[in-house]
Amino acid sequence: TPALELRNVSKTYPPPTTVTALCDVDFTVQRGETVAITGASGAGKSTLLSILGTLERPSGGTVRIAGTDTSTMSDTQLSGVRAWHIGFVFQQFFLLDHLSVLENVATGLVYRGVATSIRREHATQALERVGLAGRMRHRPAQLSGGEQQRVAIARALVGRPAVLLADEPTGNLDTANGHEIVNLLATLRETDEGTTVVLITHNNDVAAAMERKIQLQDGRIVHDSGATG
Ligand code: ADP
Ligand code: ADP
């Protein structure tokens, strides 16, 4: 099953704006692919990422996530899809300052209703995956920006989601830290889980590190370098 399948997806925001942010967007992402969504400001990138993350519903078309059609799902069912299949990473790290690194990562599992001990065990594994096993007892403020973003990535990965969605994940980082984060995202699929990564970026170097580039313009795909799977 593909990780993501979009068929003729459109999005027109409700009145008073009635902006058509996406029009006939059609693509499939296989498991383990890394995809950069690019395009000018206003092209529809954030809208697309919100739809992929089931935070927004499309006005038309269908979205399948890990093989499941989301169009007829209730809001509660969509929350379940997010909790089980999707991890989110943003430009800001959104870490909780009063919690340790380990506890921050473990919060990624609270919606799954698993026991604290299991959450800690999986959080430890996720921190190992991002190379931060040595920082578990630190507080976020004691880490560099790049390390904080790695904690946020570990929190997104802790539930082993089918898809990791990232909105400008290097936007708050300097060149060296940005480089480290992009290399981490680009190589996640090489580890055993084969995580699919879809990110939004304005940065050509970041886009170049992903296997596949999809460019949006005025809500339509104007270039898709194609599945490489
Ligand atoms: P990008 O992320 O590429 O900058 P967006 O998806 O944010 O593009 O926006 C695409 C278009 O949809 C823009 O014209 C924007 O003004 C419009 N838009 C985005 N969000 C909303 C919203 N919540 N309500 C109305 N229009 C919106
Ligand atoms: P900018 O400040 O140039 O917009 P970003 O904050 O978007 O940069 O990205 C951080 C930096 O990380 C960029 O300068 C980019 O060159 C660098 N970078 C990250 N990953 C890679 C990579 N895999 N290859 C080359 N450069 C990268």
UniProtKB/TrEMBL annotation:
Q: Where is it found, in Gene Ontology cellular component terms?
A: membrane protein complex; plasma membrane
Instruction: Note one Pfam family from the annotation.
Output: ABC_tran
Q: Which UniProt keywords apply?
A: ATP-binding, Nucleotide-binding, Transport
**Transmembrane segment boundaries:** none
Q: Which PROSITE patterns match?
A: ABC_TRANSPORTER_1, ABC_TRANSPORTER_2
Which GO molecular function terms does the record list?
A: ATP binding; ATP hydrolysis activity; transmembrane transporter activity
Q: Which residues form the ABC transporter domain?
A: 4-229
Report what the protein is called: Peptide ABC transporter ATP-binding protein
